Amino acid sequence: MTKIYLIASGKGGTGKTTTAVNLGSALNKLNEDVVVVDTNITTPNLGLYFGAPVVPVSLNHVLQGKANIDEAIYEHESGIKIVPSSLSLKDMEKLDYDKFEGISNKLRKLFSHVIYDSAAGLGEESRKAMESCDEVVLVANPNILSVTDALKTIKFAEEMNKPVRGVIVTRVKGTKNDMTLKSIHEMLEVPLLGVVPEDLAVEASLNRKNSVVHTHPRSKAARAYQDIAAKLIGRKKKPEGFGKRFWKAMFG
């Protein structure tokens, strides 16, 4: 049965798109049929991430009723499939966000896993995308501002009767300035899906227009994302990596 995950955060800059891209890539490496969709219409980054800032047909065209969703699906050289949104201001006009429901229904027939890279905050595009998803996956940084914003998103998801699968804590430096995982868990009261360390390999992968899972598969960030992806779909975990060691260190 197809499942649609909404990758969400209360604010920008948490690593939401990086997480959506790398979870999708990790699932793809596990031979899962997956597509990543840029539902962040206002500030889209998915196409840029994969070196495709301009495409003939984008999600915007689908929301405008000018194209079908299958026409907006592109396959990256790594094998992952994506649906980019447009950077053009002109393509922001006459968007019908109510079409998200129909888009989701069609994607369910084409893929086993659908990942929506949501816009930050709780605007209309975020709300409509959340209405169409099955589970919400939060992304937060280990600081009080980011975690507080994540808590707002949890409350919003609860109001919409959308289950929150858990939170992925990204950009973890492992210093005393980071909130502990225990504090984050106690504040959010949702499962901790994994920990992704601050890793220069992530920026390097962006320069190479690919996911860190593909460009630097042995990096700490890549191993963390692969562990999280396996956990999402119930696959057996690989040997202990950074995330699990860090988890043990934080919880004792």
Helices and strands in order, then pairings?
Layout: E1 3-8, H1 16-29, E2 34-38, H2 46-49, H3 59-63, E3 74-75, E4 81-83, H4 100-110, E5 113-117, H5 124-131, E6 135-140, H6 144-159, E7 164-172, H7 181-188, E8 192-197, H8 200-207, H9 212-215, H10 220-232, H11 242-251
Parallel strand pairs: 1-5, 1-6, 2-4, 2-5, 6-7, 7-8
Antiparallel strand pairs: 3-4
Helix pairs in contact: 1-10
What does it look like?
The chain is an alpha/beta fold and 252 residues long. The chain has a single domain (3-251), classed as Rossmann fold (3-Layer(aba) Sandwich). The protein has helices at 16-29, 46-49, 59-63, 100-110, 124-131, 144-159, 181-188, 200-207, 212-215, 220-232, 242-251, and strands at residues 3-8, 34-38, 74-75, 81-83, 113-117, 135-140, 164-172, 192-197. The chain has an 8-stranded mixed sheet with strand order 3-4-2-5-1-6-7-8, with helices on both faces. The N and C termini lie far apart (37 Å).
List keywords for this structure.
252 residues; alpha/beta; Rossmann fold; eight-stranded mixed beta sheet; 8 strands; disordered C terminus
